[in-house]
Amino acid sequence: MSATIAPKTRRELPPxxxxxxxxxxxxxxxxxGGEAGRLLRISVSTKGCSGMSYDMGWAEAPGAQDExxxxxxxTLLVDRKATLFxxxxxxDYREDKLTTGFTFENPNEKGRCGCGxxxxx
Length: 121
Prior knowledge:
The structure is a single chain. The protein is mostly beta strands. The chain has one domain (17-108): Hypothetical Protein Aq_1857, Chain: A (Sandwich), CATH 2.60.300. Helix content is 13%, strand content 38%. It has helices at residues 21-32, 83-86; strands spanning 17-19, 39-45, 53-59, 66-71, 74-79, 89-95, 100-105, 111-112, 119-120. Strands 3-2-5-4 form a 4-stranded mixed sheet. Strands 1-6-7 form a 3-stranded mixed sheet. A hairpin with a 7-residue loop joins strand 2 (39-45) and strand 3 (53-59). The longest helix has 12 residues, at 21-32. It is globular.
């Protein structure tokens, strides 16, 4: 008697990152203006009260260590070392009376420091 083993079905992974409509509009404006021809690169560094912080910078082209993320028709880069910390995250853009800028909703965060500038997983 021979038994056949069904192949394991792989569950689909969540997207590495997504942009909200507000973040996509702001990033599109940056790409069309002073940052034309460049790409936003997101990474995570070890700093801040809680140990980790989001870092953003501009790149002329994807590097060997970059993951390419497409959302709302826009391309951004994620440093490969940051992927485990960012998987499933959503980047938003918020404007209020005291601050303006990109923010992250990260399901991997276990907590943030009091000022909100750093996080831990």
